[in-house]
Sequence to fold (277 residues):
Amino acid sequence: MVGVVPTMGFLHVGHRSLMAAARNECGLVVVTIFVNPLQFGPNEDLDRYPRDLDGDLSACAAEGVDIVFTPSVHELYPMYPPATTVHVEGLTDSLCGFSRPGHFDGVTTVVTKLFAIIGESRAYFGRKDAQQLAVIRRMATDLCLPVTVVGCPLVREADGLAKSSRNAYLDADQRSAAPRIFGAIREGVAMIVGGTRDPHAVVASIAAAIAEIPELRVDYVAVCDAASLGSLERLDGEMLIAVAVFCGPTRLIDNVAVSIVGSEVISDFGSGWVPEG
Ligand code: PAF
Fold:
């Protein structure tokens, strides 16, 4: 079986965990590195998106990757912009889809191309991009693509900040403020553990905790159904606490999956974070 890890490069430990999962489960591992212009809005960071091909190739070699595919824009988009795109209804309306119009059409279009080029495979994506994962899963099902979409744990820095290539943009003050995003989400989880079942109360508390930090500005805070990403009137079942926050000019996202089963609350914070005490 072929394992594919689609990336935009500037590979970090989170990407490496995807490569390791693919290496563990597949006979041939392909990493794609392509900064996809179609998924960036007009005022976003396409031009300054961090790149380090030499570092990426070393990371791929260290993880035992067989093939690194680094197409040019012209190779993936012989005519730009493409007249044919892929759009997933519904799941792309909320959260990052609302804040970044057209973003997911860019993602699903390029991922469809990569899947068409690579063919039957298992494709590995991080749960940090929880909405992206849900959208790509739905796309693969709707289009009968011969690809099994595999979600892998979100990976955090030891202080809790979710690993992201965009963390490279943060200056020292922003970097020390950024873990407070995860801190605010954890306070939201603690409210649910403490018995709160009103999603609006949890959202308000997380947003207020983030608003206290001068370096941070909330883009959105949501507690939604994990499958449909739709809003909830009462917390129950499988849910996602998802946030997007501007840290200076840099937009960071994070999420924690929470399920309520009877009176038990189970949360998935991801890996790598070392809780204090
Ligand atoms: O998650 C990413 O890095 C990108 O959105 C992806 C899936 C490689 C598509 O360009």
